[in-house]
Amino acid sequence: VLSLGAGIDQINLDQLPEAVPIARLVDDSLTRTMTEYAKAAVYRYHRRLHIFEQHSRERIWEFIEPKAACETAVGVLGLGEVGSNIATALQRDGFKVYGWSRSVKSLEMIDTYGGRDGLLSMVGQCEIIVNVLPLTADTRHILARDLFAHFAPGTCLVNMGRGQHVVDADLLEAIDLGHVEAATLDVTALEPLPISHPFWNHPAILITPHVAGLCAPMRAVRTIAANIRRAMAREPLQHQVNLERGY
Ligand SMILES: NC(=O)c1ccc[n+]([C@@H]2O[C@H](COP(=O)([O-])OP(=O)(O)OC[C@H]3O[C@@H](n4cnc5c(N)ncnc54)[C@H](OP(=O)(O)O)[C@@H]3O)[C@@H](O)[C@H]2O)c1
Fold this sequence. Notes:
The chain is α/β, with parallel strands linked by helices. It is 32% helix and 13% strand. The chain is built from 7 helices and 7 strands, in the order ααβαββαβαβαββα. A 7-stranded parallel beta sheet has the order 3-2-1-4-5-6-7. Strand 4 (128-131), helix 5 (145-148) and strand 5 (155-159) form a beta-alpha-beta unit. Helix 1 (28-46) crosses helix 3 (81-92). The two termini are 14 Å apart. NADP nicotinamide-adenine-dinucleotide phosphate binds at residues 6-7, 26, 30, 34, 78-83, 100-103, 132-136, 138-139, 160-162, 186-187, 210, 212-213, 247.
């Protein structure tokens, strides 16, 4: 089975016979567009554009001193194909970058963490958190009250992973409590986000309609064709999912 996305959470694994290999789509254009989106969201918070957007609606002329990139710490949750690219790009731009993954990674000039304790100590050091984890039994609802409580006050959240990573009510509560200052959500538990959902119209939340990562079809089709050839030759697939880990 070849997933047409970077994740496989849309596939009901219980209904597949065992030993059916699943491959996900890993594609340069997807990684590049995800990195562009992450940088756009990070810079919007770093340069306080979300505050100026509100001020401009209220006709408020207030100077806010910009910080240098090295004074803004960004934490990236998930350091796979996409997350490691985002972390490296931000580090090259001068940000202080932290990263978290299941197995602790070694990335130049990036402070990396693993495990629950690592996650809790990492998030407290960051001004901006970018989530690009896959959705698995272990990561579902990871962005919840118990984690938000460890955020430094006023942390900005960028969720580009999956909507089910977030407990929606807990995010709203964390904004009310000041643990989270603002959130950019490219993914939501239900897509499209229902019009009655409190995320719409929330002054601290920006919703984008699952546009962060885009595949160039003419490139992706080559990757897919190559995997079909491998399957027909009974060779291991490229980017084959480890079904025990769930990603
Ligand atoms: N919004 C969009 O348009 C869009 C587009 C593309 C992808 N996505 C999302 O981005 C996700 C990541 O894609 P990818 O290609 O980077 O995936 P990937 O290469 O499989 O990387 C996943 C990363 O998450 C880490 N991870 C997984 N489970 C974990 C856990 N329980 N605790 C800590 N770290 C964990 C992995 O750790 P290890 O390195 O130790 O294995 C790895 O670093 C996709 O699954 C999808 O949900 C969204």
